[in-house]
Amino acid sequence: MAQPIIVFDLDGTLVDTAPDLLDSLNHTLVAGGLARVDDKAFRRFVGQGGRVMIERAFAAQQKSLHADEHDRLLDIFLDHYSLNIPGRSQPYPGVVAAMDRLASAGYLLAVCTNKYEKLAVDLIGELGLSERFAAITGPETFGIRKPDPRHLTETIAMAGGDVSRAVMVGDSVTDIDTAKAAGIPVVAVDFGYTDRHVSEFEPSAIISHYDELTLGLAEKLISAASR
Asked: Which is the catalytic residue, given 9, 11, 20, 171?
């Protein structure tokens, strides 16, 4: 029988990657002749990977972005980011203990991210977390990306998890919309990368620290979703 599973988003949910993403974005914007962005503005740009971050940053500065230039800048972004993994990125406080609690209760763990799979795998590996996850998937893994619900459901299938006993954990409207479309309960962290409070997106539950991601909460959400 397939096991229950918790699927995590990566950036802004499992790992605080903001310092390194911001460094790489600013490196890229300077290369493209744009102004750097500050920490607060950065939250407006994340959520669907480097290409979308660059696109949003150009739009915010009211600059046009042609396809060839977009591709060139994405290469610059990816080169800078990949050469600096893990940089200053760190798992959020309490997340490792939360994963231990859930794994000891028989839950599989997986990562479903819009970060490229190779970068996600490299980052998680450098942080010493790889063995905890039954699957780590990015947008190129299946040729689809969140908010397409298949990205989540295919990740669960790859991990050997039970889609009817699954919970998504994320930090953005993208994660919440993905889980809702898949019919899967979603826990939103309120410390991630969004410029609006996650309560506005109506997740199944909200946590402010991973101490709150308990076995009881997971079982409550799965039970409610099955009714």
From this structure: 9
